Structures are given as C-alpha cells and as structure tokens.
Amino acid sequence: MEKFYITTAITYTSKKPHIGNTYEIILTDAIARFKKQMGYDVYFLTGTDEHGQKIQQVAEEAGVTPKEYVDGIAGEIKTIWDMMNCKYDKFIRTTDDYHVKVVQKIFKKLYDQGDIYKGEYEGLYCVPCESFFTETQLVDGCCPDCGRPVEKTKEEAYFFKMSKYQDKLMQYIEEHPDFIVPESRKKEMVNNFLKPGLQDLCVSRTSFSWGIPVEFDPGHVIYVWIDALSNYITALGYATSGSGENYKKYWPANVHVIGKDILRFHTIYWPIMLMALGEPLPKQIFGHPWLLFGEDKMSKSKGNVIYADDLANRFGVDAVRHYLLSEMPYAQDGTITYENFVTRYNSELANTLGNLVNRTVAMVHKYFDGEILPPAEAEAVDKELIQTALETVSGMAKKMNEYRAAEAIGEIWNLVRRSNKYIDETMPWALAKDETQKQRLQTVLYHLIESIRIIGVLLGCFMPETSEKILAQIGAKETDFDSIQTFGKTKAGMHVGEAAVLFERLDEKKVLEELAGSVKEEEKEKKKEKKETPKEQSKQEYITIDDFAKVEMKVGEVIGSKRVEGADKLLVSQVKIGEEVRQIVSGIAKYYDPADFVGQKVIVVTNLKPVKLRGVLSEGMILAASEGDKLCICAPEGDIASGAEVR
C-alpha cells in the first residue's frame, strides 16, 4: 500500500485559534480522508508550537507559568480540532519530552559539524511573529508579516549557516518544479529571498527562558524555528534510540499544508536544515491563502474575529466545513461574513442538496413502498445524468490530487444541481399518475438514488457526517471510492431508509439579527472590561448616609473558582453568602490563582444589577483595594460567618 504523510503547520499557543486558523486543519483532514478513500496508507500529523518569547509574556500577564498557559491553550486547540471532526493520527506538542530531546540532538549535530556557530545578534525583532528583520525588510517601519512594531535587540546568539546551502536549495527547486505550490508562492520565495541572498539565521536566544535549553551552553534556548519545524520528523521517531520505524516508513512527507504567512520558514529554513542533517526533503509544500473577514484580515483589535466552534454550535460542524472548503480559492484569499455563510447554508445545503435527497427518498417511499426497483433502458436524459456523474468522480479526484478543495466541491455541486434538474425534466409525479409509465418511473428513481449514492461517497472527505446520513437514507451498501467508478452499483430490491431533513432552512433575517445582537453584546462587555482612567476632579464629591445605605454588602466565602475562558484577567467564582450561592466574575486573575482563592472570606456587594462579562453571568461584586501593580481582596477580620452584613 502506498504511503502518504501529510501535516499541518503546528498551531502557536498564544491564543485561541480563529476560524481562519481552523481552515488549515479542516483542509488537511479533507485531503487525508480523500487519500484514504483512494487506498493510501495515510499518516496525518498536527499539533502545537509552544515555546517563545510571546508565550512567556502572555503567561506572565495571565499570572501563570508558561507551561500552565500552553497546557490550557493546547487543550483548547485539540478540543476544536476534534469538534470539527478532524481525524489526525498524532497530535504533537513541542513541550513533549521526546521532541525536546531530539531537538537538542539536532542542534548539537549541526553545531558539531560546523553549521551552527556562536556570535552576537543586533537588529530588529517582531515578538508576535518570532522573526528578525533588516531595516530594508520593514514596511513603514513595522513587521512586514503582521504590521506590528518591531523591537531593537542585541544579544549573544548562535547562528545557522544558511548561506552555505543557498545554491543547493536553488538547484533543488529548479529540478523539482512542484516542490512549492501554488506557482505564485514559489516565485515569491525565489525572487524575494533566495536570489537577493540569504543571511545566516539566528537559532538561539538569551533574552528569555521559555524554550528548549541548549545543553552545552546554559542560558541559551533553541530559537523557535529549529524547535517548531523539527516536529515533522520528531513526531515520527527521528533520532530516537530503538525506534524510528514510522520515520523510515513515512518520511519524506508527501505534503506540508501551511499558511502563506509562514512560507519562508518552510520552503527555505526547513529544507536547508534537512540538507544539513543529510535527510530527504518533503516532496511538496502547499501554501494556502488566508480567510478574511469581508476584505480584512481577522484581528481581535478590529473586533472581526469569528471562531469555528461558535459557528459549529449554531449551524453544525458540516456546515462550517462546507463553507470553509468551498469558499477558499486555491491561490487567492477567501472571505467569510455572516451574511455569506447564512446565504450559502440556505441555497446550497438546505435547498440544493437537502431537497434533492429528501424528495427523492420520499418519492421512493410514496410510489414503491421504499423499494428500489431495477431500471429499464436509459433514455437520452438518463445518459446525460450518468455521464455527468462519472465526469464528476474523475473531476473531483483530479482536483483533490492537486489540493484544489473548493474546485473539487464545485464538481460535486454540479452533479447535485444536475440531479435536481433531472427531476424537473423527468417529472416523476406526472409519471406516477400514468400506470403505463410505471417502469419509466422506477428507472428515473433508480438513477436518482444512484446519483445520490455517488454524491454521498464523494462528500465523505468534506462533510463526513452528512455523507453518512445521505448513504443511510438511501440504504447504500456500496460506499467505497471504487464503487463509484461505474454507474449502477445500487442493487435492485434494496430499500431506502426514512426521509429526514439534512439541513433545516434558516430564517435569514432572524439569524442575522441574532448574530448582530450577540456581537453588540460582546462589544459592550469588552468596553466594561476596559480599565478606564478616572478623570481628575476639581473637588471632592460627597454622598449622604442615605446614599451609602443603598449599597448592600455582606460577607461571603469562596467555595469554587476558575478562569473565564478567553479572558486573561477574569475569574468566575461561586460565593456562599449565608444560605445562598452566587456566581461572581472579578478582574483579579492576575493576582489570585483560582485554587488559592477558594476558602477565602470576601466582602460582596449583593444588590448590584446582574451583568454578563465575556458571556458569563456575574451576580455581585467582590471588593478589593489596589495600588499600582498590587491588589488585595477586602476581607473581614476574625471568624465572621458568611452572610453577615457589612455596615
């Protein structure tokens, strides 16, 4: 059996991945599923990139260790990947012990053979991108990749001799024209980076500590690209004693599926690292485009971020998979808006596909008690449908072998539309009224069932749950890819299942109003969370004792606490106030660990109007005192019972 090793880029654990990040794992899953359908022995790798200065900074801001921080984000990423029905073979984390040990071996090997040397780096560094740049590479003084400001930095570092392998890599790319795809990506790498000449690459850092240590030089940590890129071989057991069978079996990778923003690292740094190690290069690197929100890149600061799990919870996993895979072109950026999503859901999933399956199964039940009867000789209109079905199978396979997922789905939808047109042309309801047309009716319905069977099989790699539902509704027995190479594998005498709606049609106006409302509510909550600088007052504003008497305060005891998902500053606590337990959200996560907070006595304002913060209900306020970077919870002195009034 032919081997096929496919990988995603490993996801950086600085924050929850948005729907654009999620596109990559869904695309790779679709390719892997297709290759399995075609009979390949597939190994599918994904995972998380967990080291670097940015991780250390965000962990410090959250008041946790870097390992605690990445454990949380990695778990969240894996949960989303699983939720989106992605069936990978291995999920690697760059904090895994085996990966750490092999990366240290790789670094030492490159150093021992003279490809890594010690020096000093002075230049411009982008923390979010973990990348160094020269002055000429900046765009308006900012990072050319993300547009953020860069920092001037100077530190002792180890460097990798990239220039030593430049000519060898150029020759390899010339001799392997499909090494980098699409073609536009290859031209970008050759013209913008290789031809102008490569600088030696900084491969260690001393200005932060969250990384894999250089064993022979304490104080240095191995810089992100040697660490992260090596995952593709460490996951297979490269350079491990007594193992490495998967490495021998699957390497070199058939394709690395990556975003176009990290193309340089995968098409220049990674191949040169492998050349220096004496290992084969991956067969192909596919740089996919971005998914934009409308015409903008998704950004939390712009408030235009959509998350795949939010969409899936509202519309279903397969609806999200379908939109992403059908909307993203091969080489140009795709786009998502709520309006586009709902429109395509209704027009393609509910109307075009859902109606085809539902009314066909319903007609087989209505006219033949659910039995699929044999067809008579095909007429011209039948032959057109059959030809379209067979062309769809070959066309879809060709597109998927080139990783053109949107075009491959387009081929399937051509068959779905042609099948609907076939119903309009043959008018089964009219045939059913004429007893002499009974054989013609069973022929038409047989052809529709067979066309739907082919559609169901083809959808397996894109919309696996929907594929299973379709094949179950028509009672299909032949469901492998070989079975759809010919038209007519459905056996007469079989029975269809019960007709069921695949996708409920949405009330577009209502759904968009609900989505707009949730976005506005989120914006309000974000504004509430922002720390506002109090205006200086010219004179003290006094209140009366009656004003103070309106505030109801009681002693509470924290009996449970945890961090609010996606909010670095917020804890949500269960507070016992007498016989009552209230849920209270507080902006104290930087100062209090949830486990340490449990058991504390606190002062609670109990008559505040309940509000939602980051979607979490808060039923009161815990009092605290702050000074500069210090914060202290206000607590009663002595053994005061929860529920006691504070005056």
Question: What does this protein look like?
Answer:
The chain is built from 21 helices and 26 strands. The chain is an alpha/beta fold. The longest helix is centred in the middle third of the chain and has 31 residues, at 338-368. The termini are far apart.
How would you sum up this structure in a few lines?
This protein is of the alpha/beta class and 647 residues long. It is 43% helix and 18% strand.
Helix content: 40-55%
User: Structural class, please?
Assistant: alpha/beta
Strand portion: 15-25%
Distance between the termini: 78 Å
Gross geometry: flat
Total number of strands: 26
Compute the average pLDDT. 91
Instruction: Provide the gyration radius in Å.
Output: 30 Å
Number of helical segments with 4 or more residues: 21
Keywords:
647 residues, alpha/beta, seven-stranded parallel β-sheet, six-stranded antiparallel β-sheet, 21 helices, flat
